[in-house]
Amino acid sequence: MRTLSISQARRVALAAQGFADPRPTGKVMLRHMRRVIDRVGVVQIDSVNIVARAHYLPFFARLGNYPMKLLDQLAWGEKRELIEYWAHVAALIPIEDWPLFRHRMETWEVFRSLTGYLEVHPGAMDEIRNRIRSEGAIRPAAIEKHHATGLGPWWEWSFAKSALEYLFFKGEVTIPNRINFARTYDLTERILPAEILNRSLAEPEQRRELLRKSLRHLGVATFADLTDYYRQANAPCRTIVEEMVADGEAIEVRVEGWKDNVYLDPSASIPRSIKGVAFLCPFDPVVWFRPRTERLFDFHYRIEIYTPQPKRVFGYYVFPILFDGELVGRIDLKADRAASALLVRGAHIEKGQDPERLAPRINEELETMAEWLQLDDVVIEHNGGLAGALAKA
């Protein structure tokens, strides 16, 4: 059985995620955006806007300065190529992948917050369906005045919001656009092309295709890595992965220091090196599965947004720093739009790294990010072992 060094595994993984592809030297076009989508497959959506919304950040990490409107066009434009669904979590996926989640849609159960209301108002869900069918895309506020508010368990959702989200998870409605990041909801049949909507695959084939995609996006992966990428249940996937190995769709290998079985994408490349600097947001696929991040990079990472400020170790919204194929530190960033400045609230370095060597190129990336965010300045606060070198450089 073939054995990969940890350095080789890192290069395979980063190449699979697009970090062996050179950044565009000229104007970023839709074809560059599509290339990133082909590499990552799923783009997580999150409401935190401390730097930029999460779905914009993986594209910046791979492309540098690009127009955010390109992603808006792909996700919510008239000729959309992406659609929202609960793929990893809330995420954008290529529209052709939507049928691969039918098994999830078909087994999604009614939220507990809805059951009591529907017992008293059994026709309420059909009323909502009929309103969308007759009126078109709708927001929760348009429905709430017709139904008692009632608080649900998720982010204090109203009945209307819970009902619309349930229909979203079931695949009956989708998100045609967002207004100030707030969702509107419309019938999926009015948004997706008929050939996508009507595509039918048995559940095992849906799962197998998702596992194929997971392996391609990861390059090299444990079983846990594979199932986490699209948040699949482990039990129904074990036999499928064995079948993929038997059919040559996955190659069993060893990775130095990894205890679990490891699978290699047959089409994966092992670049001689990975060059470049990138800031990986907490929701970037390279780092979103924390056990994999530790195995692959020997880098312990936890998001501290929900940690009380006095207990935070590194900061509120911290980006691991990818530097020539290694995670060399982490940087706590904030876009201060009122002051037109990108704030470096903390910059911390990993043991054994030389801050003086790293600082000039990290500063270049900070300047690129500030330009991308249309901010005039970069302000470095003296917090962390890398901050002094950044300020000096």
Question: Brief description of this entry?
Answer:
By secondary structure, the protein is α+β, with helices and mostly antiparallel strands. The chain has helices at residues 6-16, 30-40, 57-63, 69-76, 102-107, 112-120, 124-135, 140-144, 159-169, 194-197, 203-218, 223-229, 235-246, 290-297, 355-372, 387-392, and strands at residues 3-4, 43-44, 82-86, 90-94, 173-174, 178-179, 182-183, 186-187, 220-222, 251-255, 262-264, 277-279, 318-323, 326-336, 341-349, 377-380. Strands 12-13-14-15-16 form a 5-stranded mixed β-sheet. A 4-stranded mixed β-sheet has the order 1-10-11-9.
Summarize the SSE layout with pairings.
Elements: E1 3-4, H1 6-16, H2 30-40, E2 43-44, H3 57-63, H4 69-76, E3 82-86, E4 90-94, H5 102-107, H6 112-120, H7 124-135, H8 140-144, H9 159-169, E5 173-174, E6 178-179, E7 182-183, E8 186-187, H10 194-197, H11 203-218, E9 220-222, H12 223-229, H13 235-246, E10 251-255, E11 262-264, E12 277-279, H14 290-297, E13 318-323, E14 326-336, E15 341-349, H15 355-372, E16 377-380, H16 387-392
Parallel strand pairs: 1-10, 15-16
Antiparallel strand pairs: 2-4, 3-4, 5-8, 6-7, 9-11, 10-11, 12-13, 13-14, 14-15
How would you describe the overall organization of this protein?
With 393 residues, the chain is α+β, with helices and mostly antiparallel strands. It is built from 16 helices and 16 strands. A 5-stranded mixed sheet has the order 12-13-14-15-16. A 4-stranded mixed sheet has the order 1-10-11-9. Strand 6 (178-179) and strand 7 form a beta hairpin. Mean pLDDT is 94; it is low at 148-155.
